[in-house]
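User: I've been going back and forth on whether these two constructs are worth ordering. Before I decide, could you fold them both?

Assistant: Sure. I'll take them in the order you sent them. The first construct and its structure tokens:
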Amino acid sequence: MKNIGIEFKWAIIFTIMSLLWMVLEKLCGLHDRNIDYHMYLTNLFAIPAIWTYVLALQDKKKNFYEGKMDYKQGLVSGIILTLIITLISPFTQWVITYVISPEFFPNVIKRSVELGYYESTEIAEANLNYKNYALQGMIGALTMGIITTAIVMIFVRTKDGELVQEVE
């Protein structure tokens, strides 16, 4: 457990940050009066999500690998972090759906039918619900987590020049 303690810590931080983001969205009216902007503005979540991955991988490098982490070590760490986040994501979505913003799905269903995204309320309800969002959240967490890790590790890894300087 000690080997993945940092990943577990950052998965919890990521989850809390995700929940706070949803509270912010709700407070800004993106789940009701400003729902038309939700599908655009919710994508800004990528900024704190990527930043959290950067901080997590820097933490692993500094506090587990003593400042020297190669690409593969970071990739493994990021994948472990991603797997933990992915496993927690259905719970996160449940809290969002039933605690933070229970009015979101009724509102988005109504508005998507009004705008013609779906032909009927029944079709919208079949697509816009906790079960689908939980599944999409898991797939998205897994996919984006691995891609984010792969890119972030290009910058966080210890480069060959850094190793030479430290040896001298």
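The second construct, handled the same way:
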Amino acid sequence: MSDAPIRVVVADDHPIVRSGISSLLSLADDIEVVGEAASGAEAVALAVELEPDLVLMDLRMPVASGPEVDGAAATAQIVSTLPATRVLILTTYESDDHILGAIEAGASGYLLKAAPEGEIIAGVRSVVGGQTVLAPAIAAKLVDRMRQGAAPAGPRLSPRELEVLRLVAAGHSNPSIAKQLFISEATVKTHLIHVFEKLGVSDRTRAVTLALELGLL
């Protein structure tokens, strides 16, 4: 395992908030803030320049000139341009539309600024480690939103595939899932491959969000 620190760009249009987030992350020995952005467009430019491991992104960030690039639009640009860079939303906004827009854009997680400091730092580590991170309140909103409407007919997942996907949604890694279900990591990966194929997705985050949309979770 590499000993290199997790390289993070912090994107927030409020200087005091941005500084506070950067100071918080600097408390962790394994996290390094390599850049700060005050707008969505600046976040995209910095990400392309620095190729960080993660961009910690606010959602509502107007720009001084040119077309507005909010956090969701910036997230979509970063994810499409830099597949190795993950985006974790950290914002005060928790409306259904904000949440769905950010996740549809490719964000790997969604946390609120009111979250405990330890949860934010843990979220950074988890997302860079390939996990999906959703604040409990956000996960509950997604479930409620998807279950209120008539869920469209979706693919059938086996009971074991659903077990694996539920643990993925809870933020567990493949080794953790294997341990809890008493199966090998290779078997976990096989189940996930089948889940991805049935749902027509290519990553864990989209598998969870689509499963919620379809009422499978």
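Notes on the second construct follow. The chain has a mean pLDDT of 85. The first strand starts at residue 6 and ends at 11.
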